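INFO  loader      accepted 1 record
INFO  loader      residues=280
INFO  predictor   begin
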Amino acid sequence: MKTMSKLFILALCLGPLTAQAQLVPKKKTTVTKINKPVENKPTVQAVRTNTERATAEIVKTTGCRPLAAASVNTVLTSRVAKTLSIKLDRESSYIRFNGSTQQLSISEYKVEKPGHDWLYFMNDVNSTKAEASFDEETRRFYLKITFEGDGSEIKGRCPGCIGRYEDSRAPDINWLGNRELIIELKPIVHGNSIAFEAKGTKLKGHFAINGPVQAFMPGLTTYFERQIMNAVEAQAKRLMNTSAVRTMMADAFRGTVNTLGLGGIDTVETGEDHLYICAK
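INFO  predictor   done
INFO  writer      dumping tokens
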């Protein structure tokens, strides 16, 4: 009886605690989806990578008109380059352009040796044709002069040698590869038209000595390369950069330039494959 009374009292004491220990139902988790914000497209568009098209649009808005490089080459070749010829020779070296002739100073080269010296000189080398070209990478115009190649373009002699050894003892020098002389041209405005002036020269191909003496005379071929380039460059500038020649070229281009419908011409610039002529 006492035991039952104790259990009853214990149940009365633990009742409230049991009620508090009831499980609280778990709340439902709410998942909110976050949408990626919409990107606003920029109002300024990227610059075109096509520089030729972009350049064309710019010059169009600034009073410029394009003239195809191919058209410029045609006029330069037919009206200008055809009047150009060059001769490289011991007795008479010259450049002839538009009816005027300038002598070229290309000195002989002496190789001092034990016994008898050797003498080297240009040996009747003539140009065969001249034509204009345009390089899209450098954006420059050029006059390309091609030369004949019969061998022994630079002759070697041994003046102190006897008989046939005077000619055979000193080996000749051949101009190998593309035997060309390149004159760089710069477009300018002249007489409300366009003309060109000579800027520099470059010799193509290479000179090679017949025989093993090349290793002993490395300065010989370099000497003639520099002599030819320096002489032609100096006289080409003297001939082409005159008012008379510029007027001749301006007249040659006038008909082509007039088709562009421009007024007074102010500047001229080169593009990737065009010459841009701009009005004032």
